[in-house]
Every structure is written in structure tokens, then in C-alpha cells.
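Q: What would this chain look like folded?
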Amino acid sequence: MATKKRPTRRQLPKPSSASRVPPSPTADVLVYTTYDITDEPLDNRDIKKLPSQVQARIDDLYALAQHDPRQAIPELERLMTTYPHIPTFANHLSMAYLAAGDQEQATALVREAYRRHPQYLFAKVNYAHLCLQKGEVEKIPALFNHQCDLKGLYPHRTRFHMSEFTNFVGVMCRYFCAIGKRETAVLYYQMLKQVAPRHPMTKHAKRALYPPFW
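A: My prediction, written as C-alpha cells:
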């Protein structure tokens, strides 16, 4: 029998003497906050209230949305309609439409998810990526309450899932690249390399910093 993979827990480095808390995302410095990053599923009261068979499908639908989006889309649409208060389904559905090449539907879902769930981290991140794509960079600081760090954005939390960390740090790297704060963008990229060197978001951040010559 295969042994169960142990969850990953990582901790960001403590602040160095040169680190300062930026007053806003336009600052030239990056705050390093100590908190736990884990691969373990985080407690979600709303998801725990769902029927057990629906809970059991969430991870499968996440994988299906990436690898066979046309199959995932009908089920995710039903779940989003049935449980509109669960932002996870809208997030997975927008990802499925994007993987299927339907940019229009994906964009509409990203906007709708942020309108319905403005405090949901992935709704913020997805809408921020859309703003970067549309050249609406000035909207991004307000999306994250002028915070450059997950702990600043969610001060009541001490643990974050790896996907939360990589997506937030990745969009921060792109944002600082877009406003010409390259040194700060490099710091975010270094954080990604330290915590998740093989993650797709780390590769995206690298391309934002060092675009291919061709």
C-alpha cells in the first residue's frame, strides 16, 4: 500500500533589519511576515455544510477543470447555481472556461465572482489578473485593501494554503512589474522560488520579470 503523502508546512523568513512594512502597494519595499503555508485542506465552514458527495467532488472537479474542462463545465454550472454562496464553484468554473478557450465566459465569471464575493482571495486575485490584462493597473491596490502581504490582508489568520500563497504572491509580482517597481517584483519572485520553486505561478512570475527574447 502506498504511503500517504505528508502535508507540507513552510514558514516564511522572519523580517530582516532592512525590511519595512509598506504603507501601500506603491512602496519600494516588501514586508516579510512569519506565517504557516500548508498543503493541508483548510477549514471552511460553508463547504463543511455541503452534502458529503458534493464535498468529495470538489478536488476532482478542480483537476477536471484543468484537464478536461468541457466535461467539468456542466457540473460546475449546476453546483454554482445550487450553491451560489460557495465561491469555490465560480472559481473552478472560470478556470474551466479559460482552459476550454472561452475567454468571454471566463472573463464574465471572474467579474461576477468578484462582485458576489469581494472578500474571497481567489476572486480578488482573478479580478486583479483581469485588470492587469486590461491595463487597469490603478484598480489593483484597492482590491487588496492597499496591502502587499497576506497577513496584512487577513490579520486574523496565521495559516494559508499553498494555493493562496502562490496566487497572491504571483499577482503581486505581476503588479509591481506593471508599475515599474522591478526590485519589489523580484522580491516576490524570490519568495515563490523559495516556497514553491516548481509551481506554475512561479514560472509565470519569472516570465513577467524576464520575458523571452522571441
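The beta strands are 9-11, 36-38, 159-161.
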